[in-house]
Specification:
This protein is of the alpha/beta class and 244 residues long. The protein has a single domain, classed as Rossmann fold. It contains 8 helices and 7 strands. Helix 1 links the parallel strand 1 and strand 2. The protein starts with 6 loop residues before the first strand and ends in a 6-residue tail after the last strand. The mean pLDDT is 95.
Length: 244
């Protein structure tokens, strides 16, 4: 019960890594509020958790909606201890073929969404005097780049910049800020890739396996817990050694 009674918001929790994290955090005693844009994902999460996970449909690109959702959580629980900025999307294309709308959409969700949620939650943490933890989801792509993902890589590099800057700003308030940089993780989206691509990614990693959503969720758990009480401003790679 490493997160006993810790009030936690996890964005993008309707599927994939966010969903795994919501279930894991709840099993560790956290009071989890799962945010997602898709109500159907939230409903199935609520059912799977047997009501242990509370859900709110939130568009992280809408600052007013984010603030309202934060106010709802604070009104119900009195504080927020943990924020996991997990929501993110891709819209891949080579730069010469990328539509401006694809650039704008990815920037809005992956970068502006982190700004909106962090700003609203940090204000609540400061107001309540909470020594909290903020965990931002970056990517190995944000560190090393990737062909066909200039928009995604830009946002994930930006997330690292937000993480380090906010860690410096908020340290005096007792608020820790860290980032997780997953490598190739098997989700519903990646599972549909051609078998030869899946095999290639597995063989490139020294650990010779794909990552799972639980691998990343457990890192979120560590950074959210008091076990990481002296860790801030860090980028934790979860990639099986892929970038070596």
């Amino acid at each position: 019960m490493r997160l006993q009674n810790k009030v936690t918001i996890i964005t993008g929790a309707g599927a994939g890594i966010g969903r795994a994290a919501a279930l894991l955090f709840a099993s560790e005693g956290a009071k989890v509020y799962a945010w997602d844009l898709k109500p159907e994902g939230l409903e199935s999460l609520k059912q799977e958790s047997k009501g242990a996970v509370k859900t709110i449909a939130v568009d992280v690109t809408d600052s007013a909606a984010v603030k309202a959702a934060v106010d709802t959580v604070v009104a119900a629980e009195g504080r927020i201890d943990v924020l996991v900025n997990n929501a993110g999307i891709t819209a891949d294309a080579l730069l010469v073929k990328m539509e401006e709308s694809a650039w704008d959409r990815v920037i809005s969700v992956n970068l502006k969404g982190v700004f909106n949620c962090s700003q609203a939650v940090v204000k609540a943490m400061i107001e309540k005097g909470t020594a909290g933890s903020i965990i931002n989801t970056s990517s190995v792509v944000g560190v090393y780049g990737n062909v066909g993902q200039v928009n995604y890589a830009a946002t994930k590099a930006g997330v690292i910049g937000i993480t380090k800057s906010l860690a410096k700003e908020m340290g005096r308030k007792g608020i820790r800020v860290n980032a997780v940089a997953p490598g190739f993780i098997i989700t519903d989206m990646t599972a549909k890739m051609p078998e030869k691509i899946l095999t290639m990614m597995k063989e490139k990693a020294p650990l010779q396996r794909h990552g799972t959503v639980d691998d990343v969720a457990r890192c979120y758990l560590f950074l959210a817990s008091d076990d990481a009480s002296f860790i801030s401003g860090q980028v934790l790679g979860v990639d099986g050694g892929l970038v070596l």
